[in-house]
Amino acid sequence: MKDLEKIKELDASCYEFIKSHDLASLEIGRYDLANGSYVLIQSYTSKLRSAAKYESHEKYYDIQYVISGKEIISMIPVEKLTIAQEYNAEKDITFYENSFDGIDHVLTDGDFLIIAPGDGHMPGVCADAQSTIKKAVFKVPVRD
User: Fold this and answer.
1) Quick one: DSSP state of residue 48?
2) Domains of the chain: residue spans and CATH
3) 46 and 69 in contact (C-beta within 8 Å)?
4) Whole-prediction pTM value?
5) How confident is the model over 17-56, as pLDDT tens digits?
6) At 128, phi and psi to the nearest 5?
7) C-alpha to C-alpha distance for 46 and 66, rounded to whole angstroms
8) How far apart are CA 144 and CA 21, in angstroms?
9) What integer pLDDT is reported at residue 1 of this predicted model?
10) Which residues sit opposite 119 in a β-bridge?
11) Do residues 13 and 19 touch, judged by C-beta distance below 8 A?
């Protein structure tokens, strides 16, 4: 998905951050935005599906934005997964036993996926071969 208006609808501060920064040149780390949102700039080697885990969050939406590289993010309803690690409120994450089910989304430079709280997702899976990924993960708090 490349329609940045979808990000703007969820959180204008994330949209403005993307539009006003050269994401490729940003240092790895956390950048705080408005209204409790923040972005984590990450760099890592994509992993084999057999080593990846599904996860979900309760307090935040994820906007997983690939700056450079190519990865798969697999999605599945959490009701179809078995919990491996109970919810950690401090880190806002639940991990699930590995599953090869789910719908794969292949993301490359400039692609993003908005992941709602409670959606099972497995990020960072290698698409063709293991490679270096630079990604911005925007965290947007659930607002009542």
Assistant:
1) -
2) 5-141 (2.60.120.370)
3) yes
4) 0.93
5) 999 999 999 999 999 999 999 999 999 999 999 999 999 9
6) -110, -50
7) 12
8) 29
9) 54
10) 77
11) no
Report CA dihedral (65, 24, 39, 28) to the nearest 10 degrees: 130
Instruction: Confirm if 72 and 125 have CB atoms less than 8 A apart.
Output: yes
Which residue reads 């009542």 in tokens? 144
DSSP 8-state assignment for residue 3: -
pLDDT tens figures, 60-114: 999 999 999 999 999 999 999 999 999 999 999 999 988 778 999 999 999 999 9
Placement of tokens 């109970």 in the chain: 86
pLDDT of 2 > 80? The answer is: no
Residue spans of alpha helices (H) in the chain: 5-10, 12-20
**CA 54, CA 40: separation in Å to the nearest integer?**
19
